[in-house]
Structure prediction request, 213 residues.
Amino acid sequence: MTRRKTAGELSLKASSDKTKYDPLEVGYALCDDVVNQLYICANRHENIFDEDEYCIMLVVASDPLIKGIRRHKYAAFLYLPSPRPEQSCYLYNKKTQKLKRLWTLPSAMVMATISETPIVADKWKKTKAWCDAFYNKTFWEYIRKEHGISILSELEYLNANREELIKAGAKQVDPSFTEPFDFRKISVEKIVDTKTSIVEQGCFNDFRQAQHA
Prediction:
């Protein structure tokens, strides 16, 4: 059996690689791989969920121990997962076997900057609408109206199915207490070297500095 390289070994190899890569080629390769992983997650849940439609979530997380490592976590839900920075959510339909993007949220800093910016470029308008709805606490209403769907949010789904979940053995959790997620538990197959990522944050930093000047 071939031994897989650890994340640390891959990170060290990436940091020592002096090859110059075309950013567009890297971006296209990354997008193709993400789409492939989304479908893998969706297909794995076809026999688990009875419903024809369900949500596929992608969360991008930094490694707590290895600098420069970004991990992708994929998960499926019967409800709209709670929004958070660096998250994308898609609606999967079993019959059509197609994915529809519901939203994509950037990093926390970019979310705040875009929401604070009165006017943004056309390519950022959809993202700004999602960020504004997030901070205005109208996220679910906006997403449902934008896509013409009626899927329940996580809290709405849990409340609507509380009795069934309790009977099935689920514990009733105190909503006032939240246990922080341990990102070390994330299992991944793909690693992204952030040193080759394309991040359009320079313009936001300039805007923020101009505001406070």
Observations:
- The first strand starts at residue 53 and ends at 62.
- The chain has one domain: 21-195.
- Residues 7-30, 183-204 have pLDDT under 50 and may be disordered.
- The helical segments are 7-16, 23-44, 108-116, 122-136, 139-147, 154-160, 162-167, 202-212.
